[in-house]
Amino acid sequence: MKKDPDLEAALTRNRRWVVNNQIKNIILRCPDHVASVSFLQKKFKTLDLKGKAINWLKKYPCCFEVCLKDDEYHCRLTKKMMFLVHEEETVKDMQETVVVERLVKLLMMASNHRLNVSKLGEFKNNFGLPDDYLIRIIPKHLDMFRVVNYGGRKNSMEIELIKWKPELAVSTIEKRSQKQGCSPSFSCSLPSTWVKSWEKFREFDSLPYISPYTDPGRLANESKESEKRTIGLLHEFLSLTLWKKASIMKLGHFKREFQLPEKLNVLLLKHPGIFYVSNKYQIYTVLLREGYNGSELVEKDPLVVVKEKFGELMQEGLHEYNRRHHMLNLEKKRRKGVIAIKQEKNDPVYELSDEDGNPGGIFDPEERKRFYKVLFEDKVP
């Protein structure tokens, strides 16, 4: 699939957020919300990261505080980060009804209206489900859900829907068609110059739309009708996610529950006007094209808005780190006589620490004030 720079940029931006969000969650699970850097280092493999954990943490001084205690480095979240953590929890409480509806819709699309708890856990963040949703949400809605274990094994625990909600069995495409007063149809987000792709899309879209909430039992395997329903199901699944995207590998774990084809990636690539497939970071990801305008989401869930504030805080710290790194390199060159740094009368003089040659050191309070004044051209409190 031809690369889309905007959608690739969206994935790049999300990558750093995902990693730091996982680090944040690890720290929050630790006693007193403090984790040793050596413990975080062990978690780096699961986060698909290389290098030293302490260097990564120091790149984001607005998010993580690193301190030396008992000859060992420890990390905690900054006050700004903790403020966002509390804000996120507040939004999750307010969004509980929406999250319950998402879970109901997922179960209504699944065969036997059941989903494996372990598999669903891989997507809980995609749908805004809290980590403790099994004890935080399910017990409050025993009229809708129940936890079952028909297999008897620990990893065969499932969530089952016990009450069908007809008012929720309406797909995003059907809602849009009702507003527009037309028949349900997919939208194609391709340039007009992609003539052959447009022709294939029109041929596919000319078939009657089949709701993902209908029973697929009557459809013949590998028929055009079956493919139409599967594409509708994948469209609906991605529409329910916060970022309108999902890992293809994780999606493949639901082949039995959603009756997906063995070669799921091939099916997605057949419909480039609806889906965008990327191999950024050697991870195959599918994005819903209509969910994005350029690199930005068309509609942002309240949880996404809070998480974007986290991203802005990350960027603020990274900006500070990069500037410090640059200035430290200039200072080293000046000391070696490689360059002479010219200073205007009104330019502030920065006293930089060259301890261990590590540009990630934490500023002293007065130095931080001067940096923020220069970086953000704002009055220092």
From TrEMBL:
InterPro entries registered for this protein in UniProt: PORR_domain, PORR_fam
Domain PORR: 2-318
Pfam families linked: PORR
GO molecular function, one term: RNA binding
PANTHER family: PROTEIN WHAT'S THIS FACTOR 1 HOMOLOG, CHLOROPLASTIC (PTHR31476), UBIQUITIN CARBOXYL-TERMINAL HYDROLASE FAMILY PROTEIN (PTHR31476:SF5)
Protein name in UniProt: PORR domain-containing protein
